[in-house]
Structures are given as structure tokens and as C-alpha cells.
Design goal:
The complex is a heterodimer of chains A (676) and B (505). Chain A is mostly helical and 676 residues long. Helix content of chain A is 72%, strand content 2%. Chain A has helices at residues 4-27, 45-71, 97-120, 127-146, 150-168, 175-205, 212-220, 226-243, 252-255, 261-270, 274-282, 284-289, 293-311, 317-337, 341-369, 385-399, 405-419, 423-451, 458-468, 487-507, 520-527, 536-541, 550-572, 579-593, 598-648, 653-675; strands at residues 74-75, 79-84, 87-91, 94-95. Chain B is mostly helical and 505 residues long. Chain B has a domain at 281-505. Classes of the chains: A mainly alpha (676), B mainly alpha (505).
Chain lengths: 676, 505
């Protein structure tokens, strides 16, 4: 039985690891220094403690999933958090199908990443700090997906944001990491502002809707006006776009790769960035009820292609993966936009595994090659077989090659878009197919540049080159030691690669398998969730019966294979493209390399020119002449008043008595006078 | 008296009995028995007192959960005492405060030389008096309980027997006598007008007496009674203009005693005033003028406390003024009594006061005891002497910073939540101007609280000797700060308790 306590334990175990690692471990005396190295700077305790805590969380999450499979959605009682003078803020746990899936994904990927981190972060000065942040993140994310109250969800949403900020800026002595952390925090905060406004609006319309179940019921009963739903959905969508790095709020995610690679694997691919998709899925009835579903589709579809195009030319393997993540999140968004709830959640589910695998493999590459820059890698396939094959499998899965998991989920999204009846759905389908071609191309371009051909010198060579050109090399370029990574790193990679193969087909097969029914996953998340999808029509619309469409599947497979082939040709045969054509594409390549000048637009035009030059200067003037002045005067006068009052306090007990009685008489006089 | 009467009184009796046990133990553990070394008995007495507090605590828990006796809103012992949950809530507060003070006072016991037993005995008798006071539901009992509290407190203030301490004791005694006189006047007016001393009977009589329109509180007798009673308790609560003894006594008295007075004594006075006044809250004429009265007192207390704290150079005096300002914030909750015609629930006023008091008890105790520990070891009670504390005791410096931020009202501490609750209660009752005054006062308070935080975290110091507080002190401070954070983050823990405890409205 998954009791409420179990769910709380899922959240509290990593939270305990956070408190222990972050606060207690420092204060403990070196009780077991020596052989066990339990405490002190080089202690491994923090890592293993987090692994165990998250591991137990994962087991409990799995039990919770089984519970939901057998018993369906559970809403646990709301409890009063702050109840005073008419305001009653409540919190509680909801365990529906979406929550159960997210619990397993988050705790499962987190567990593997923590295990990986034990090896990957070994010897880092911030080892303990790293694990305390990771535990905080895991706890927050688990709290986010179980929240039953919108305010509770928002609290965890912000906790996730702050732990992401801390982890991106984990290497505190790197200016680029600090800048990336700040950028990520500010951009997502900007989006969260919309989320917060929507919550306040929601509260002002009807406070009882803060309870998500109440909100579902209100929408079903038609108690919420469409205009109200639209405004709230718009705010929620803005928050989701920030967290999930959707166009035009995408530019923080590639920079977020400044954090440790394991952080990118957990937070910036598999879990936190999917929180935006989760948010839209969580409030799916609200979005369906609103007028802005088309906006969700457009944002997702544009992002899917837009981000993929930048991945075509990126040289940093982690940035390729980052753009790929943004692009895939775009797929999930437009899937939700066209109403394919089941397909979106399914893609979120499969994507978490193969994308985490890709990131962890990239980290393993860095471990051997000393850099993420693919121009200095190459030829690694003979040195690290596990990493290589894992990378290939995950890339095939991402590219959507049958029968790997990515094929099934991506295809379902495309099939739904194809069966949509609006022009926007057609637009989404075209974008999706174009994205599929690009995805296959950039992933295999990355695989070939990294693993095939000759080794091009790695981090050491890159450092020399940068120094030779007279610039300061960035941090993080390390020496080359070709060879496979330790088992704590390769085991998680191998497990994730295995899951990337099987988890698509075997959880959501297109025909009955015996142990898994036809469309088990889709049936589970859609049909069983009767609070969200209350009648059969809504269930079918949301994809309880996936439309496996051989035509779409064929086209997308052809496109994927075509993308791989182009990547192969371009990499191995020089002169496939005539020089004149090559020259014509140069401006376009440049546009992509400069990321469509979005950084310039935001940082130069909006932030520096617009914000700093005009707005900030104006506020500064106001501050100096207005607020500062008032403050100084206020201080001067309060200080004078204080000193004047202090004169009465002369230490004479007679004075004290007189003041007391005079005070009483004044009070009496006031009342008698007031009465007149 | 029947069994229920004894159960109702049992926590108070246990506290008084513990005082006597300590007096006897002090005599038994005399010098001769331990080879002339008085020192050994010091710890023994502290432990006896600390563990002995379990007695009243368990008996109070027994009433709360109704194991053997029951908490009931009906007054017992001829109507003189009410052992309801409201009483028990404050009794827990008093027992907890006493325990913290005993725990933290071990390093100071040498100051009391041969009056060690007296210290514990007086402390516990004062605590017993407070526990009686918070449940007293009859005028003469209130008076007797108040005196039982006041006289030991005076002796405690003078216990160190040096110039400062004796001056503090003398001032405390004289002004305490003045306040009691005012209180007695007030009680006499109430008795003279209604002819009853039991609160429930007074309320019943008031209901039959005419309330004249246009007369404050509906009748001049009630007005005088209320004003005089408020003035009398005003001394204990340290609200302006009856606050003037506070800085002198807190500075001169032994600091654990000052910590005790600033929390337990204040809380018990608030409790008895709430019980007395809220029984009359049902009369609309009373409630209207009540709002004005307490709004004025709150304004005066907050403003005077904060303004005077600004110019202080002595840490103990600064903390004294800070408690005056804090009492002013609590008075905002008093002012927010619901007038029958207005919106808002009748219980939100007392609820906000009790929440504030609970948070204040944790925070203020931690801050008082923490700074006491520092000052005791540096021998320097000026604010400037706290500079660079973080280099000398990082843990205490961080804890004290959190405590000060809680007193200021920063999230996520209880100080923020309690202020938010109490101010919003005032707004609900239409006292928007008072909430504005309170918020402005909070800004003024930021000047001096943040100055200290800045000083202890970023200030310079030449003296880098580490300050090592005793384990008991650390335990009390950590519990206090942990309470301040926990009650701020998860207020429902105590709000639920308070909800159950509002038995007086």
C-alpha cells in the first residue's frame, strides 16, 4: 500500500540527504577519519548517502506506480498550512498517473546520475556541496510532481529553479559558469513572473481552485469561464516556456551546460526542463478549456525546428545535446498543443532515458578526451567501447529509428499531428518532420566527429591552440587519458542505453504482448486518469488509442535515415557538396553559429541598451534624488526623535512613575474628549 | 474541592512543590556534605530543577489530552481558576521558558554565590505565580497571582547584589508597587460597578447594566476600570508609556533573569489581559473604544521602542527597547478585536496574538540567551564589542543573525509570518492606518537590527579568541532558533494548537 507517508518519504529522503550533506557533514568532527574517510574534505560519504537516499526514493516511487496501476488516482487530504484571518493556504499530495510516471522518471534517472556522480565528481573540491545540491534538486522535483495545491507546486517550482541556479554555477571560480547561472535564473524568473501572476489571478477568482482536484471539477462542471481559463493558462504557459526553454526563452539552456555534465544529464535534459511540459500536462483540462491551445502548438513546433537548426553547426557536444533537448521539448509541447496528452507524456518518459544516457556518455567522453569540443575529439570508439555503443544506441533512439524507444514516442506525436484537423496541426506536422531530419543529422554528425576518424588531440591540444592565439583558455580543459571510465560511470550509461532500446516498445506496444497490453502506457496515463479525462471522447482525443500510422512512420524513418546518411557523407567524403554551394550556405551557417543573434538581441539590445541605458539610469536618478534622500532624512529625524525621547529616560524612578501616571491620565482625557 | 479541582491546579502545585524541593535540596547539598566544595552542587541543583520541570509539564499534558483530568472551560474552585486549553497553552510557554533559562544559566550561577538555592526557588515560585495568573478567572486571584509573580521577580533582579543589580531591584519594586496600585484601582472599579469578582459573573452583570451611547466604553466606570487595568498590566507587558523600568532593570538584573522577564512575565500578563478583556468583547460599545485604546498604545509602544533602540550603544538596553517595540506589535493584535458589525472572525485577533507570542518566545529567548553568553565571556556589553563575532564564534554569530532577522520580521522565520498574520488581522478589522504605522515601524527597526547583523557578520575585531559557550547555552539557543524557523516555515504546527486553545472567546 502506498500510503501518504510513503509519498512524503519519497520527497523527504533526498531532502534529508540535502540537510545532512549541506549542513551536518561540515559540523561533524572527523569521527571516522582514516580508513573509512567518512568526513572531512575528501570524504565519499556525501555521494553514497545521496545514492542510497535517492535509491530508496526510487524503490518507493516504483511501489507508488504499481499502486496507481492497480488502484488508480489517489488524492490525499489537503492540510492547512497557513490558516489565519480568512486566508487558508493548504497543501497535500496527489498521486495520479502523471505523478506516478514522473516520480519514477525523476527518482530513477536521479539515482543513476547520483551513482555516476560518485565517480565523475571524485576528487572535486566541491564534492559534498555537489551532492547536497543534487539532493536538494531531487527532493524539490519530487515535491513538484506530487503537489496537489498550485501554491505548493509553485514553491517547489522555485526550489527547482534555485537548485538549478546553484548547480549551473557549481564551479564558482569560473566566470562563465557564474554568468550562465545568472542568465538561467533571470530568464526563468522572468517567466515565473507570469506563472505567479496567473496564480494570483486564479486565487482572486476562486481560492478553492488552488486545489488542483477542485480545479478539474470546476472545469468539468463548467464553473470556470473560458476567458478566465485563457488568462490563467497564458500565465502558466509563460512559466512553462521559461522552465522548458521554449522559443523565445530558450537561450539560457545551452549556456547552462557550464555546470557539471551529470547536472546537465539530470536537470537540463531529463527532469527539470520537462517541468514546463509537466505543468502544461498537469493543467491540461485548463488548457483545453482555454483559447490558447494553438499558442502551445505554435511555440512547441517553432522551438522544435528552431533549436534543431542551431544544433546542426554546434561544435560543443554538450551544446548539441542542449539544443536537441530544447527541440525535443518542443515536440512534447506541440503534442500537448494538438491534444495528444498521452503521446507527450510518453515522449517525456522515453526522452528522459535516452537523453540522460547521451549526456552521461558525453561526460564520459570528456573524462577521456579532456574537452567537449568535437573539433579536438575523434577516433574514440576504439578506446571506449561502452560509451561509444551507448552513444550510438541513444542517438538512434533520439533520431527515431525503429524499434528503439524514441521511434515509438516521436512517431505517435507526429501521427497525432497528422490526424489533427486544423491548419496549425499540419504546420506542427511539417515542423516535426523537418525536425526529425535535422535531429538525425546533428546527432550522427556529433557521433562521427567524436568517435570516428583520427583523434585530434583533445583538451591538451585545444589549450595549446587557444594559448597560441593569445587568448586565455577556459576552465575545464583537461589532460587526455584515453580509455574507458570507471564502473560507477559506465554502469549507469549502460543501463540507460538498455532502457533507450526497450522502454518505448515494451511499455506501449502496438499489439498485445501478454505482459503488456496494447498501448498500455497511453491507456494508463489517459484512460485511467478520470479526473482529467472524464469521458470516452476526451480520452480518445487525448490519445488513449494511439494512431500508429505506417505512412507517417515510413516518412519519418526515411527522413531519419536520410539525415544519418547525409551526416555520414559530409563527414567521410570531401567534395560531396561543390565549393560554390558550400559558399552559398556560409551566411546561413554563420547565422546558426551566432544562434540567430538572440544573445545579442537580449543582452545588447534589450538588457544593455534598453534596460540599463534608459530604465536603470532613470531609476538610479530617482533612487539618488528621491529614495536615498528620503532615507537619509528619515534616519536623521528618527535619530533625533530617539535622542529627544532618551532624555526622558533619566534613570530616576520618580520620572518613570510620573510618565506612567501622566500616560494614563492622557488616555483618560483622550477618551473623555473623544466622547464629547 | 473535588478531584477535578485538584487536577486543574496540579501543574501549578507541581511547580510550587518543585520550588520547595529546590530550597530543601540546596540545604541538603550544603558545603559540608561535599567536602567544602559548593561548586559540585551547582550542577546538581540545575539538573534537579530542569528535570523536575517534567512534573508540571506532564501534568499540563495530562490535562491537555484528558488522560486523567480534563481541561474544561468551566471555572473550578468556586470560579477562581480555569484550566482550559488557553491556560494550558500559556503554561507550556512558561514551563518551556523556565527550562530554557535554567539550562542556559549554569555559567552564571557563580554570580549568585551563596544564594544559589534562592535563585532556583525564586525563579520557580515566579513561574508558579505566572501559571496561576494565566488561568485566574477571578479578580482577587488575579491580584494574588500577580503578586506571587512580582515579588520573586524583584528579588531575582536584585540577586547579584552589586550596585547595578540592587538598583534594578529597587526600581522594579517601586514601579511594580505603583502598577499594582493602578491595577487594584481598576479591579475595584469593576467590582464596584458590577458587584462581582468572578469574571463570568461580571460579564453576566454587565449584560444587565445599561450602556450609554456617547460615553466611552458605554460607562465611565467600565472605562476607568479598563484603563487602570491596562495600565497595571502595562508594566508587566512593557508597553509605552509604562515601559520605562524595562531598560534599567534588564541592564542591571542578571541576564538570565532579564530573559525570563522578557518572555514569561510578558506572556502571562498578555494572557490574563486577554482573558479579562475578551470576556467583555461581546459588548459592542466596549469593543469600539477598545480598538482605539489599543491602537494608540500599539502606536506609542512601537514608536517609542524603535526610536529609542536606534540610539542605543549598549546591547542589553537595545534588546530591552526591542522587546518594548515587540510588545507594541502584539498590541496591534489586541486592537484588532472584532466589532460585531464588521467582517472577520472573532478568533483571529487572539489567534494572531498567541501565534506572535509563541514565535516571540522562541526568538527572543534565543537572542537574549545567545547575547548573554557572548557578553558574559567578552565582558563587553556595548554593541561595538560585538564586531566581527563571526570570527570568534561562527555558529553563535549565524544563529544570532537569524534570531535578529526573525525579530525584524524576515522570511522564512516566524517573525515574518507572525507579523504578516497580526498585521493582516488588523487590516481585516479596518485598522489599515495601524497596519501602515506598524510596517513603517518595522522599517525603522531594520536600522538597528540590521546594523547588529552587519556588525557581527562583517565587522572587524582585533580579539580573535574563540568564544565557546557552554553546552546548555548552545542547546537553549539552538532550540530557540530552530523553533523560530520551524514555526515560520510550517506555521500550521502551532496554528492548529492555537486554534484548539482559543477557549476564551
Amino acid at each position: 500500500m502506498a500510503s501518504e507517508l510513503t509519498i512524503w518519504l519519497i520527497i523527504l529522503l533526498p531532502a534529508f540527504a540535502f540537510v545532512f550533506n549541506g549542513l551536518l557533514l561540515r559540523w561533524l568532527p572527523e569521527i571516522a577519519a582514516g580508513p573509512f574517510r567518512l568526513t572531512g574534505k575528501k570524504s565519499d560519504l556525501a555521494g553514497w548517502l545521496t545514492v542510497v537516499a535517492v535509491g530508496v526514493s526510487f524503490v518507493l516511487s516504483f511501489l507508488a506506480l504499481l499502486e496507481v496501476v492497480s488502484d488508480g488516482t489517489q488524492y490525499f487530504d489537503m492540510r492547512s498550512w497557513i490558516a489565519i484571518s480568512g486566508v487558508d493556504i493548504q497543501f497535500g499530495i496527489m498521486l495520479d498517473q502523471l505523478t506516478a510516471i514522473m516520480l519514477v522518471v525523476v527518482s530513477g534517472v536521479s539515482f543513476l546520475v547520483q551513482l555516476y556522480g560518485v565517480g565523475y565528481m571524485h576528487g572535486d573540491d566541491g564534492y559534498t556541496r555537489y551532492f547536497s545540491y543534487m539532493a536538494l534538486f531531487t527532493a524539490s522535483m519530487l515535491g513538484l510532481v506530487t503537489a496537489r495545491s498550485v501554491i505548493q507546486l509553485f514553491v517547489f517550482w522555485e526550489l527547482v529553479g534555485i537548485s538549478s541556479y546553484l548547480l549551473i554555477g557549481f564551479w564558482l571560480n569560473r566566470p562563465s559558469a557564474a554568468a550562465a547561472a545568472k542568465k538561467a535564473f533571470l530568464m526563468t524568473r522572468f517567466a515565473d513572473f507570469g506563472f505567479l501572476l496567473a496564480i494570483l489571478y486564479l486565487y482572486s477568482v476562486d481560492p478553492s481552485w488552488l486545489d488542483i482536484q477542485e480545479m478539474y471539477h470546476a472545469i468539468t462542471a463548467g464553473a470556470m469561464a473560458v476567458s478566465v481559463a485563457s488568462w490563467i493558462a497564458l500565465g502558466f504557459l509563460l512559466g512553462a516556456m521559461g522552465k522548458s526553454a521554449q522559443f523565445p526563452l530558450h537561450s539560457w539552456l545551452p549556456d547552462a551546460m557550464e555546470g557539471p555534465t551529470s547536472v546537465s544529464a539530470l536537470i537540463h535534459s531529463a527532469t527539470m526542463v520537462t517541468a514546463g511540459v509537466f505543468l502544461v500536462a498537469r493543467f491540461f483540462p485548463l488548457f483545453e478549456h482555454s483559447d490558447i491551445m494553438f499558442l502551445v502548438t505554435v511555440v512547441g513546433a517553432v522551438t522544435a525546428v528552431f533549436a534543431a537548426s542551431m544544433a546542426l553547426v554546434a561544435d560543443d557536444i554538450k551544446r548539441v545535446l542542449a539544443y536537441s533537448t530544447v527541440s525535443q521539448l518542443g515536440y512534447m509541447m506541440f503534442a500537448l498543443g494538438v491534444g495528444a496528452y498521452g503521446a507527450a507524456v510518453f515522449h517525456l518518459f522515453t526522452h528522459a532515458f535516452f537523453k540522460a544516457c547521451l549526456f552521461l556518455a558525453a561526460g564520459s567522453v570528456h573524462h577521456a578526451g579532456g574537452t567537449f569540443n568535437m573539433n579536438y575529439l575523434g577516433g574514440l570508439k576504439n578506446h571506449m567501447k561502452i560509451t561509444y555503443w551507448a552513444m550510438v544506441i541513444a542517438s538512434l533512439s533520439l533520431a527515431g529509428i525503429i524499434p528503439l524507444s524514441g521511434f515509438w514516442s516521436k512517431d505517435e506525436i507526429l501521427a497525432h499531428a497528422a490526424h489533427g484537423d486544423s491548419g496549425i496541426a499540419m504546420f506542427a506536422l511539417l515542423m516535426g518532420l523537418l525536425g526529425a531530419l535535422m535531429t538525425a543529422f546533428y546527432m550522427f554528425r556529433a557521433v562521427i566527429k567524436t568517435f570516428h576518424g583520427e583523434f585530434r588531440g583533445g583538451g591538451g591540444k585545444e589549450r595549446e591552440d587557444i594559448e597560441a592565439s593569445g587568448e586565455v583558455p577556459p576552465e575545464g580543459l583537461e589532460h587526455v587519458h584515453l580509455g574507458e571510465s570507471p564502473w560507477t560511470m559506465t554502469v549507469p550509461i549502460a543501463i540507460l542505453a538498455f532502457l533507450a532500446i526497450v522502454i518505448g516498445f515494451f511499455t506501449n506496444p502496438i499489439f498485445d504482448l501478454g505482459f503488456a497490453n496494447k498501448h498500455a502506457f497511453a491507456t494508463f496515463v489517459v484512460e485511467r486518469n478520470t479526473d482529467v479525462f472524464h469521458d470516452h471522447e476526451a480520452q480518445v482525443h487525448a490519445g488513449s488509442e494511439p494512431k500508429f500510422d505506417p505512412l507517417i512512420a515510413g516518412i519519418s524513418t526515411v527522413l531519419a535515415i536520410g539525415g544519418i546518411a547525409i551526416a555520414w557523407l559530409l563527414a567521410t567524403r570531401t567534395g560531396v557538396i561543390p565549393a560554390s554551394v558550400e559558399k552559398m550556405t556560409l551566411p546561413f551557417q554563420n547565422l546558426l553559429r551566432r544562434k540567430y543573434y538572440f544573445d545579442e538581441l537580449y543582452e545588447d539590445l534589450i538588457v544593455s541598451r534598453g534596460f540599463y541605458s534608459y530604465f536603470a539610469r532613470l531609476v538610479d536618478r530617482l533612487d539618488i534624488s528621491g529614495f536615498d534622500n528620503v532615507n537619509i532624512q528619515l534616519y536623521r529625524w528618527t535619530d533625533r526623535a530617539g535622542r529627544a525621547l532618551a532624555k526622558v529616560q533619566d534613570g530616576q524612578v520618580q520620572t518613570y512613575g510620573i510618565v506612567s501616571v501622566v500616560g494614563l491620565i492622557v488616555a483618560i482625557v483622550i477618551f473623555v474628549v473623544v466622547a464629547q | 474541592m473535588n478531584a477535578q479541582d485538584y487536577w486543574a491546579l496540579s501543574p501549578v502545585i507541581a511547580m510550587a512543590a518543585l520550588a520547595i524541593v529546590l530550597l530543601s535540596a540546596d540545604a541538603l547539598l550544603a558545603e559540608r556534605m561535599f567536602g567544602g566544595r559548593r561548586f559540585g552542587s551547582k550542577r546538581a541543583l540545575s539538573w534537579i530543577a530542569f528535570i523536575g520541570l517534567l512534573g508540571p509539564a506532564i501534568l499540563a499534558l495530562n490535562l491537555w489530552f484528558g488522560w486523567l483530568g480534563n481541561s474544561t472551560s468551566d471555572p473550578v474552585i468556586y470560579g477562581t481558576f480555569t484550566a482550559d486549553r488557553f491556560t494550558l497553552f500559556f503554561q507550556f510557554l512558561i514551563i518551556g521558558t523556565t527550562a530554557a533559562v535554567i539550562l542556559a544559566s549554569v555559567p552564571y550561577l557563580e554570580q549568585f554565590r551563596d544564594s544559589l538555592g534562592e535563585f532556583f526557588t525564586l525563579l520557580l515560585i515566579a513561574a508558579a505565580g505566572m501559571m496561576l495568573l494565566v488561568g485566574a478567572s477571578e479578580l482577587i486571584t488575579i491580584y494574588v497571582a500577580l503578586e506571587t509573580t512580582a515579588l520573586p521577580a524583584v528579588a531575582l533582579a536584585a540577586l547579584r547584589r552589586d550596585g547595578f543589580s540592587i538598583e534594578a531591584g529597587a526600581k522594579f519594586l517601586i514601579l511594580s508597587a505603583l502598577s499594582t496600585a493602578l491595577l487594584l484601582f481598576g479591579l475595584v472599579f469593576l467590582y464596584g460597578y458590577t458587584g462581582a469578582t468572578r469574571i463570568d459573573e461580571i460579564v453576566a452583570r454587565l449584560a444587565t447594566l445599561p450602556f450609554e451611547a456617547g460615553v466611552p466604553f458605554g460607562s465611565l466606570a467600565v472605562m476607568l476600570a479598563v484603563l487602570l487595568i491596562v495600565a497595571g498590566f502595562g508594566f508587566k507587558m512593557a508597553i509605552a508609556p509604562w515601559h520605562m523600568w524595562v531598560p534599567d532593570v534588564y541592564q542591571g538584573a542578571p541576564t538570565p533573569v532579564a530573559a525570563f522577564l522578557s518572555v514569561a512575565s510578558k506572556a502571562s500578563a498578555f494572557a490574563v489581559l486577554m482573558r479579562l478583556l475578551y470576556s467583555m468583547a461581546g459588548f459592542e460599545a466596549v469593543a469600539q473604544d477598545w480598538q482605539i485604546l489599543f491602537a494608540l498604545i500599539a502606536t506609542a509602544s512601537m514608536t517609542v521602542g524603535n526610536l529609542l533602540a536606534l540610539s542605543q550603544t549598549n546591547m542589553k538596553r537595545l534588546l530591552a527597547y526591542s522587546t518594548i517595540a515587540q510588545a507594541g506589535y502584539i498590541m496591534v493584535g489586541f486592537a484588532a478585536v472584532s466589532i460585531a458589525s464588521s467582517s472577520g472572525s472573532a478568533t483571529s485577533g487572539p489567534q494572531s496574538i498567541m501565534y506572535y507570542l509563541a514565535g516571540y518566545a522562541f526568538t527572543n529567548l534565543a537572542v537574549f540567551l545567545g547575547f548573554t553568553a557572548i557578553i558574559h565571556r567578552t565582558g563587553d556589553d556595548t554593541i561595538a564589542g560585538l564586531g566581527g563575532l563571526v570570527k570568534r564564534s561562527p555558529v553563535l554569530a549565524v544563529l544570532m543573525s537569524i534570531g535578529l532577522l526573525s525579530l525584524l520580521g524576515m522570511p522564512p522565520t516566524v517573525g515574518f509570518m507572525a507579523k504578516a498574520v497580526i498585521f493582516s488581522t488588523a487590516v481585516d478589522q479596518g485598522l489599515i492606518w495601524l497596519a501602515v504605522v506598524a510596517v513603517v515601524n518595522t522599517v525603522v527597526a531594520a536600522y538597528y537590527y540590521l546594523r547588529i547583523v552587519g556588525l557581527i557578520l562583517f565587522g572587524e575585531t582585533e580579539d580573535t579568541d574563540p568564544i565557546k559557550p557552554a553546552p546548555g547555552e548552545m542547546a537553549a539557543v539552538i532550540v530557540g532558533i530552530a523553533g523560530a524557523i520551524v514555526l515560520g516555515v510550517v506555521p500550521w504546527l502551532v496554528l492548529q494548537l492555537i486554534d484548539d486553545s482559543i477557549t476564551i472567546v
